[in-house]
Write a sequence for this structure.
């Protein structure tokens, strides 16, 4: 395939940062279709429109997801990308690969595709970028039979669940995010591979409130680790931080190499608490835990002095998404605390998930994420369906509707009697 002139793309190779343009030019030495990738993208830059057609229906037998169809709308000009389908490979929990597994995956992609990969983007899966339709079935056969791996999710289905490193590497983990991620991935294979939802649905599991997988912003169902009791305080360690002990660097020594001056607990911790629930009494740090929102700032700054409580579990947040129909939105906190019990296969979490699905599949519109359905129909209705009692934390803003509505069972004696009494009193 001919090399294309790419003056616009060449600009992206200038400057201090690595460039995908350079990578694709190197890849083109063994995979000539990469020149056509660059040529088509250069044309898109000139025309200011994409030259990928809608993917249509393409995939492997028995699966409705896992393959994202890509066809060029200028195939005679760029025959190397006439077909350029994306294959999603389900990732292991916490993205723990062996070098043997990675080499096998790369060999597979050299054999059947362009050799271009994306790992790991916001979708969670490992992405194989660019293959022809006739290569999909043999690629799938080798992937599942030789590597014992599966395709990830795409389309209006459950997307491949993803999680943080959890207990395996993180001392702040409040539940086993990898175990939950693996358990629910195994449980919901059918929902991953056979689209049946109004639109996509994502689980993400963060084992602590630092939320290292950004579940609260990117998933329809976020399970974020938390604790119910008080933050544990080592007062002696607090004094070590205040004294500037070299063995107790703030932020765990993350800012080594730059002199930030003497640690100031008032300025760097207490004044930055979002609810102002911390203060010093003499030499002791005090925390009003009832006001703590688990932002993790104080724990991150003084990790040897402060730790999460011992009564651990998770917060469930529902409804985050990127801007598709109605703008980006964060998830809504629905359950402030739930225990995450692996011994019963996380049945409490499973019950919540399936309540959400049952309601959303009944009332959701086509291509409407669950957060948009909640927004359209209203949080009070959603909470009622989920059998969750409303609480102040569910209030987004003061209401502007002057009307008040009650259900009949909420009014002692029935609303009809109250209306009659009201009319009698005001008849004059």
């Amino acid at each position: 395939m001919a090399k294309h002139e790419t003056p616009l793309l060449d600009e992206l190779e200038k400057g201090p940062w690595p460039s995908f343009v350079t990578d694709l030019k190197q890849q083109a030495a063994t995979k000539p279709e990469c020149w056509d990738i660059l040529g088509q993208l250069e044309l898109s830059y000139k025309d200011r429109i994409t030259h990928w057609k809608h993917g249509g229906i393409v995939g492997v037998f028995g699966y409705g997801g896992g393959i994202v169809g890509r066809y060029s709308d200028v195939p005679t000009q760029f025959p190397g990308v006439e077909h350029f389908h994306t294959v999603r490979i389900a990732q292991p929990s916490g993205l723990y690969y062996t070098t043997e597994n990675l080499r096998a995956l790369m060999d597979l992609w050299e054999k059947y595709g362009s050799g271009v990969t994306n790992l790991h983007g916001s979708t969670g899966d490992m992405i194989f970028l660019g293959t022809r339709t006739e290569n999909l079935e043999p690629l799938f056969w080798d992937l599942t039979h030789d590597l014992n791996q599966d395709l990830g999710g795409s389309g209006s289905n459950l997307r491949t669940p993803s999680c943080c490193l959890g207990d395996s590497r993180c001392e702040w983990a409040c539940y086993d995010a990898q175990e939950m991620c693996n358990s629910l991935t195994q449980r919901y294979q059918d929902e991953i591979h056979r689209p049946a939802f109004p639109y996509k649905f994502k689980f993400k599991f963060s084992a602590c409130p630092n939320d290292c997988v950004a579940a609260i912003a990117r998933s329809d169902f976020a399970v974020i680790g938390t604790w119910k009791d008080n933050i544990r305080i080592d007062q002696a360690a607090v004094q070590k931080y205040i004294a500037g002990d070299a063995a107790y660097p703030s932020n765990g020594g993350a800012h080594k190499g730059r002199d930030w001056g003497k640690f100031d607990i008032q300025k760097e911790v207490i004044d930055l608490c979002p609810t102002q629930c911390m203060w010093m009494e003499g030499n002791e740090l005090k925390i009003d835990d009832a006001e703590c929102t688990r932002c993790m700032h104080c724990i991150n700054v003084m990790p040897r002095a402060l730790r999460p409580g011992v009564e651990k579990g998770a917060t469930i947040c529902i409804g985050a998404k990127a801007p598709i129909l109605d703008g980006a939105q964060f998830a809504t906190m629905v359950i402030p605390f739930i225990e995450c019990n692996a011994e019963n296969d996380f049945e409490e979490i499973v019950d919540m998930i399936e309540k959400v699905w049952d309601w959303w599949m009944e009332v959701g519109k086509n291509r409407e994420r669950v957060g948009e359905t909640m927004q359209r129909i209203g949080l009070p209705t959603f909470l009622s369906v989920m059998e969750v009692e409303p609480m102040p934390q569910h209030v987004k803003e003061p209401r502007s509707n002057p009307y008040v509505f009650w259900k009949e069972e909420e009014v002692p004696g029935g609303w009809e009697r109250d209306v009659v009494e009201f009319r009698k009193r005001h008849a004059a």
Summary: The chain is about 30% helix and 15% strand.
